[in-house]
Amino acid sequence: MEKIAGQSILNSLETQFEAFEKSLNGQSKSAAHAVRKEAFSSLMNSGFPGPKNEEYKFTNFTRAVEKNFELNGTNADFGLTEAQISATQIEGLDAHKIVFLNGIYSSELSDNIQVEGLKVESLAEGFKANSALAQSNFGTKANFTEDAFVALNTAFSQHGVTIEIADKAVIEKPIVLYFIGDSSTAELSYHIRNIVVAGKFSQATIIEKFDTVGEHKSFTTSVNEISVSDSAHLRFFKIENDTEQAYHISNIHASQGANSNFKAFTFSLNGAMIRNNLNIKLQAEGIETYMNGLYLLDGKTHVDNHTVADHMMPNCYSNELYKGIMDGSSKGVFNGKIFVRPDAQKTNAFQSNKNILISDKATVNTKPQLEIWADDVSCSHGCTTGQLDMDALFYLQARGIQKDKARAILLKAFANDVLETVENEAIKDYLAAIIEKRLEK
Amino acid sequence: MSKDDQILEEFTSKEYEFGWTVDFEADEAPKGLNDDIIRFISAKKEEPQWMLEWRLEAFHAWQKMKEPEWANVHYPKVDFQDLIYYSAPKKKKKVNSLDEVDPEMIATFERLGISLTEQKRLTGVAVDAVIDSVSVATTFKETLGELGIIFCSFSEAVREHPELIKKHMGSVVPANDNYYAALNAAVFSDGSFCFIPKGVRCPMELSTYFRINAANTGQFERTLIVAEEGSYVSYLEGCTAPMRDENQLHAAVVEIKAAKNAEVKYSTVQNWYPGNKEGKGGIYNFVTKRGICEGDHSKISWTQVETGSAVTWKYPSCILKGDYSIGEFYSVAVTNNYQQADTGTKMIHIGKNTKSRIVSKGISAGKSQNSYRGQVHVMKRATNARNFSQCDSLLMGDKCGAHTFPYIDIENQSAQVEHEATTSKIGEDQIFYCQQRGIDAETAVALIVNGYAKEVLKQLPMEFAVEAQKLLALTLEGSVG
Predict the structure, then answer these.
(1) Which residues form the SUF system FeS cluster assembly SufBD N-terminal domain (chain A) (predicted)?
(2) Contact list, B397 vs chain A (CB under 8 Å)
(3) CB-based contact (8 Å) between A383 and chain B?
């Protein structure tokens, strides 16, 4: 066996894990902690993904973490002002708000949600109270043997939320999870785990947003384990518009019941290095799944989207649309996998990935991957990379629109395909404003 | 006594020059692979010292390599020490008449429309007409020779044109390129060498010649095609007929070099033994094929029809180095029963205004697995590169699989790259339509499949296109039910 990658990180994690175990006191005998221990030993054995690892081929996150972080296991105290905190929030959005400061639940800033059919609790409290929801769902969807960073998150999971939506409950307002970090005095690092259970026939929208304020670097991971029960409708937004020093790994692992509808939206607008893993298991019949993503990058931002739609049963539909605009010396990576298992006859699966490069130094690596074991299916994928259509640009210029303006119009139109799929007006406006500002600069 | 036999005779009766002796009656090397075996092969082929050194270097590189495991194929590992790396061609078992040949094979030949003489040659029957074909072959050789075209076996080229071999061998696929290429470089038995001088357009499909003159190509063959400035050649490897072959592992290497304005068209029809219906036996076909468009405006085109072999693993690639150079890849890969194919291409755009086109049609039936794996890489300085890829898969039956792994890596903003892939099955309405008109289901499938693969088949030289069409129907026989 070759040398394990990320050995220096592993070394520092070893003592941290011991300290973490001690801090748990009575909880170290719980079912959840058994999972943590297992994840930790799996991580210690396999190490972090090296440069030859196929899944991290174009995104050497291990090296980025080794190079940029000391990971001493503790964060400085949170010291941001109220104004700084509210600046990270989505303006004009009427929502149920949950706030985490440096990865720890803040009961002061979070709404006290009193809505029938909706139960939002801090995961740390849930673990302490030995809640059945936290204990029984923890680690069931996100497989830590497959991804070392999921193992890292699992081993150190303590904070996050559990969201339980009762059968038939329709939650009108979106539930927004704000993770706000303060890196003004030292580097920041924390791991978040959210557990979402959407009951039968329920409807809800969840937004996850990570922000860091400060000069120092931050390394955060989040793992969402989502169960979408039969006939439920769930939308999950991931909005990434953090600083140029923010390293983030996002995991969304969902499984869907019969006739359910799940839409995942990923907007990657800024950050240092972002990795998004979106894994959806279509475990019953009649399911609809939508995966929409937009990455709008410049500077040195590196964004990697890995998505999996795993069709396990017949008569399901999945549709994926990812679009990217790469400027500066940014790097976009896309890997979309569609699996159609032998039982999944009559599957309709579509995937589209379109990229525009607007700078000489920007690169894109894309790999749309279809793996099909059933014959009566209709699957397709398309993938394009190019630059702006010169004819369209000329057309606009001929009508007296300046080149810069014309370019912005075309890019906005390109991005709009994804933006249009957002149903909530407040979220759409918020994103549109950011995109517009970026494209017109 | 043939020339080969003379060489053998000569060799066995003399001491080995490099201080190592053969103490067995040598038509065959003993099992296993080590420095001595390589010396033995090299000596058997009367190769010069530099060739031996090249082989040994490749062998030492190979020893340090690991067998690649990333491909989407599963098979029992090959024990490389349990193989015989050299056996003289004359060992081939001769059959006296076609009556002794497997009747199933004869039936196949007849349906493919292969002539009686050729049938005999392919099955290894001693043919009287051999003299005829030799003379025909010689005529061909003379015609080619007048134009300055060199077309001969690799060993002959090593002897007669060492300067060309030295210059070009390993320049496209280096000896240590990958596991199987290194193995091939160390032990390659023979192969073909083709040199087209400046400004010459090869007047015939080299396949024509090849078909008549091809000796039993070995297990580790090596092909080198060098097209000088402004030349053109079309080359066809393989045969539509099922080859009688005892070798389990085939690790071939093909290198193509195209200078300025040159065009090389390389077509392959591969129909090695795919194993029986239960998936037992069959050939492992691990091939490294690569061409480089060195000069401006050069073009390399790969066309392949893959129907045989238990496991196929090959990626004919184009390195588009010259400005305005063009790379093309057309492929039909058919798998049935327990066959596995992992095939595709690599298009590396280095020069400006380079273009590539990929059309891959996969057909899987039975319990087979068929993968397309390809890469389109546009390097930083490849301004205005253009690529179009299309990878379609057709599934027949619910036990087979079709997979696509396209890698698209773009480092230049002016690149325009498109990739599309679809997977579907043959429409029941299409079959019904044919059946209504009195065409039975099996023929209907053949008809539809041929239509589906037409874009690729039409790239083949005419005579082979016809055979390839029949071959497709034959391979898929029994897959509809």
Answers:
(1) 13-175
(2) 375
(3) yes
| Residue B352 belongs to some domain of the structure | yes
Phi/psi for B56 (5° steps) reads -65, -40
Residues B268, B271, B275, B276, CA torsion sign: positive
Report whether pLDDT(B394) > 70. yes
CA distance B313 to B339: 11
| Number of domains comprising chain B | 2
Q: Which domain holds residue B69?
A: 3-91
ipTM of the complex: 0.82
One domain for residues B75 and B133: no
pLDDT in tens, B31-89: 778 888 888 888 877 888 998 999 999 999 998 888 888 888 887 777 777 777 766 54
Domain boundary assignment for chain A: 7-284, 389-441
Residue of A nearest to B420 (CA): A382
* B325-346 per-residue burial string, b: 16 or more CB within 10 A, e: under 16: bbbbbbbbbbbbbbbbbbbbbb
Looking at B43, B59, B91, the residue that finishes a domain is: B91
In this structure, the answer to whether residues B244 and B289 fall within a common structural domain is yes
Residue B50 burial (CB count, 10 A): 12
Inter-chain CB proximity B398 and A355 less than 8 Å? no
Geometric angle at alpha carbon A307, from A159 and A213, rounded to 5°: 40
Two structure tokens written together for A302: 């590196």
Instruction: Answer yes or no: do B309 and B358 share one domain.
Output: yes
Helices (H), B161-262: 162-168, 179-187, 206-213
> Are A359 and B413 inside 8 Å of each other by CB?
yes
- Give the integer Cα–Cα distance in Å for A370 and A351: 9
Cβ of A369 within 8 Å of Cβ of B403? The answer is yes
Regarding beta strands A288-297 and B340-343, do their DSSP bridges make them parallel or antiparallel, or are they unpaired? unpaired
Question: For residue A151, what is the DSSP state?
Answer: H
> Helical H runs in B34-129?
35-44, 49-63, 103-112, 116-123
Best of A352, A372, A391 to mutate (most B CBs within 10 Å, chain B)? A372
pLDDT mean across residues, chain B = 79
Nearest Cβ partner for B423 among A365, A379, A386: A379
